[in-house]
User: What shape does this take?
Amino acid sequence: APAPDLLEVIGGIERQRGDVDAAVAAFREARRLDGARIEAALGLADALLARHAAREAVPVLTVVDAARLSP
Assistant: This one.
C-alpha cells in the first residue's frame, strides 16, 4: 500500500479531477494507516462535503478540531 503522504497527494489530485469517490478512498486509507494525519482528515472532510455527506464529515472535522486544540 502507498504511504499516507502519497495517499494524501492522490486524494488531492482525485478531488481536483472531480473523482470524489476516489478522493474519499485515498484519504480514508491515509487515515487508516496514520490516524494523526490532519491533512488527510481535512481532505476527507472536504471530499465528503463535496458528495453531500455532511453527517460523515462532521465527526472527521471534530477530530481535526480536537487535534488542533491539543498542546
Observations:
- The radius of gyration is 11 Å.
- The mean pLDDT is 91.
